[in-house]
From TrEMBL:
A molecular function GO annotation: oxidoreductase activity
Coiled coil stretches, renumbered: none
Family under the similarity heading: Belongs to the short-chain dehydrogenases/reductases (SDR) family.
Name of the protein: Short chain dehydrogenase
Keyword Ubl conjugation carried by entry: no
Amino acid sequence: MDSSPISVARRLSSGCRPASSRRYATVSAATAGGQVAFPGVGVYHAAKWGLEGFSEALAAELAPFGVQVMIVEPGGIRTGFTGSTVMAEPMPAYKGTPVDAMRQFSADPAATGGDPATMAARILATTTQDLVPRRLVLGSDAFEAITSTLTDRLAEISPQRENAKL
């Protein structure tokens, strides 16, 4: 069975028409990496940003059928993710670059922090609300990174108001 987000959404949307008194919610498992980009993991971010864009569109498409879409954006989670990272031997040319920073992050088990069970409980509790948030940010690292990035983005765009008038 294909469990890609698009396949799941297709199956979900066909099962909930026409709109009924039942309430449905679907959860997209993104990360803070769907809002914030770090050097060295561009392919990862491309996938997460794509999932977030798809989820935004899906939310608008499914709203008339009473289906809510929640994008979960956790920060670091203690899952052993960095412990499975395989890296090539260090090369002096990469010292002090984003590649070096990624190597240091991957080598530090303390770099990931949130408790997976606590995060799962928060996700489940949130899906039982009458109105689920479009985004559920989990972890202080995710909250800080996302709010900082969005603030910076607005500061960069705001002075362009006159340019936008075409």
